[in-house]
Specification:
This protein has a four-stranded antiparallel sheet, with no helix packed on it. The chain contains three helices and four strands. It has two domains: about 80 residues, no CATH class; about 50 residues.
């Protein structure tokens, strides 16, 4: 198990989330299973509507969130996890909402711009792989 600390701001007195990498690198050389702890989603008003809709047989604690990434080519393994593109789309949506609301700032504007650029580069990579006929495979 490995811990990620890139999200922690030195000097921030708020309770910090703990991010753990729980698997060994797999398909593509990346990890695919992350656990985020240090939260209580049961106290989040937005969580209540989905509290009874936990996926599959999941009966895990409400103080942990799991991120399970796609592991292996979709053509071979099917869709078995989320992509970084999907997570970036969520972050982009939130930053756009902050910019349209009372928390607009140059910091959010810059973060939004760079997330959008990151998503564009990942999409360009996918388009290039589609053109070469290797998207969804282990081929470079």
């Amino acid at each position: 198990m490995r811990q990620i600390t890139d999200h922690i701001v030195s000097g921030d007195q708020a309770v910090q989330l703990t991010i753990e990498v729980l698997d060994e690198p797999g398909q593509g050389g990346a990890n695919h299973l992350y656990r985020i702890t240090g939260l209580d989603v049961g106290k989040n008003p937005s969580y209540e509507p989905c509290a009874g809709e936990k996926p599959g047989n999941y009966d895990g604690p409400e103080d942990a969130q799991w991120v399970v990434f796609q592991n292996g080519p979709i053509k071979e393994f099917g869709v078995n996890g989320v992509t970084q593109e999907a997570l970036l789309a969520i972050v982009i949506d939130r930053l756009r909402s902050f910019q349209a609301g009372p928390f607009a700032s140059n910091y959010n504007k810059q973060a939004l711009f760079h997330c959008e650029v990151a998503l564009q580069w990942l999409q360009k990579r996918t388009l290039e792989r589609i053109k070469r006929g290797v998207e969804g495979t282990n081929q470079k």
